């Protein structure tokens, strides 16, 4: 079978709609939400997203609450605290 998309990947389903920059942002989010993550209980790469904020390990059958798009979300204010200040 021929490869269907060259650059767009998972957002090829949107076609030419919504604009390129919006599709690039959505691509980053959709790749991270469909990826499998390492389970913090058993250590296997089996943690998968079930619904918004619900993550399930297929190996040890643990279900945990996490981030909406990634298994572990960044703490609130993380970006502002770790950025170099602009007043320097």
TrEMBL record:
Transmembrane segments: none annotated. Coiled coil: none annotated. InterPro entries: Ribosomal_eL37/eL43, Ribosomal_eL43, Ribosomal_zn-bd. One of its GO terms (molecular function) is zinc ion binding. Keywords: Metal-binding, Ribonucleoprotein, Ribosomal protein, Zinc, Zinc-finger. GO terms for cellular component: cytosolic large ribosomal subunit. GO terms for biological process: translation. PANTHER family: 60S RIBOSOMAL PROTEIN L37A-RELATED, 60S RIBOSOMAL PROTEIN L43. Belongs to the eukaryotic ribosomal protein eL43 family. NCBIfam families: eL43_euk_arch (TIGR00280). This is 60S ribosomal protein L37a. The lineage of its organism: Eukaryota, Metazoa, Chordata, Craniata, Vertebrata.
């Amino acid at each position: 079978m021929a490869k269907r998309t060259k650059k767009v990947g998972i957002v090829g389903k949107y076609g030419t709609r919504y604009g390129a920059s919006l599709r690039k942002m959505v691509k980053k989010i959709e790749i991270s939400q469909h990826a499998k993550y390492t389970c913090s209980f058993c250590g296997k790469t089996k943690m998968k997203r079930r619904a918004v904020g619900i993550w399930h390990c297929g190996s040890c059958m643990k279900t945990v609450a996490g981030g909406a798009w990634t298994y572990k979300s960044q703490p609130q204010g993380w970006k502002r605290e770790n950025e170099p200040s602009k007043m320097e």
